[in-house]
Specification:
This protein is of the alpha/beta class and 405 residues long. Helices cover 38% and strands 16% of the residues. The longest helix has 15 residues. Bound molecules: adenosine-5'-diphosphate (ADP) and magnesium ion.
Amino acid sequence: MLTVDQLKDLKGKRVLVRVDFNVPLKDGTIRDDNRIVAALPTIKKLTSMGAKVVLMSHLGKIKHKEAPEVVEQQKKKNDMKVVVARLSELLGQPVTFCPDLTGKDFHYFVDTLENGGVLLCQNTRYEKGEEKNDPLLAKEWASAVDVFVMDAFGSAHRAHASTYGVPELLKAEGKPVACGYLVEKEIASLMRCVDVHPEDRPYVAILGGFKVSDKIKVIDSLLRKCDKILIGGAMAYTFAKAQGKNIGTSPVENDQLDYARKCLEEANGRIILPLDSVATNGFENWTEKIVTTDQNIPEGFEGMDIGPKTIELFKKEIGSAKMIFWNGPMGVFEQKDFQAGTIAICEAIRALHGKAFSVCGGGDSAAAVKEFGYKDDFSHVSTGGGASLEMIENDGHLPGVDILK
Ligand code: ADP
Ligand code: MG
């Protein structure tokens, strides 16, 4: 796979960069510009080489099956124009906005861009054909450019026109397709968790979050690769119930009990479950909070976080690891009373002082790591929630990455 650094003679070339500018918005302004910042190195490299840089990204959801007035509303809410000013400020150069994604005007905007200039196109999902990977749309976009660079890791698990159709066509025409710096780093970090080297053992996975059923393929894959799997979060209660424990009113997936038993058997002692829980007599308007003495939860109580004994156990396991992959918070970290488990995992990783390779992947887990101020303690915090999990599930394969090869 080509990387940006291997692209030569870009002066005057039209380079389409698929970025991930799917930024969180609140009342029409950008709430967090992390994703824009993450794309800057690739954009700056290309402009410094004199390329005409054409940026495309999706933003939010647009459901083309809804009534026309609903689609219009969704478009208004997810207008890419909101990104122009911040991008220009961060890049330190003007950014032209192209409101069209097809037709004469679109091509005019691209062709009249000066060398080293940056053009940001409208939200790709304004086009119905984007998510369907419509061949005509892909053809129109591919025909407008000379080179394709993929730097939207968070969209690499989707085979859409802008992530798959365009590089597929350009490749067939013998034109260069490459990955950007962000995608390059994501792949390198996640591949290390997929193709495990002996010096990275013991390899410990930490899994949490809400549902076992969301993570079946991840669990299966990690069971094949890891030395230990620590399980916390709501999903731990399905495992506890499968072992015949009382779990009170904790969240449980009764249709996954057999699967949980199968995992425990296959793991042969490598799955480590919580020893205790912080539990309450309700999810939101609770009035009583207890710490259980063991893996059982009293009637009328639900588990909200891992307890202190579990924290000690998990810290010990993390402390002896050489490599860590973490997905899923240990508790209801959105509520202050149940953040301790998730923060303890962050602390344990900080305490490694970089002596182990640590990766956090997953939308909520990565958000928790950033919110609690531990991002720099990890070797890598993935920018792609779903994409990072699919990378683990599919042994390192993602459509938007494979097509670059
Ligand atoms: P990620 O996005 O990192 O993959 P998930 O989406 O699977 O993680 O899970 C995150 C959610 O799991 C959070 O909203 C958190 O509140 C919830 N969660 C974790 N532990 C519990 C629990 N014990 N009870 C209810 N919800 C929980
Ligand atoms: Mg999530």
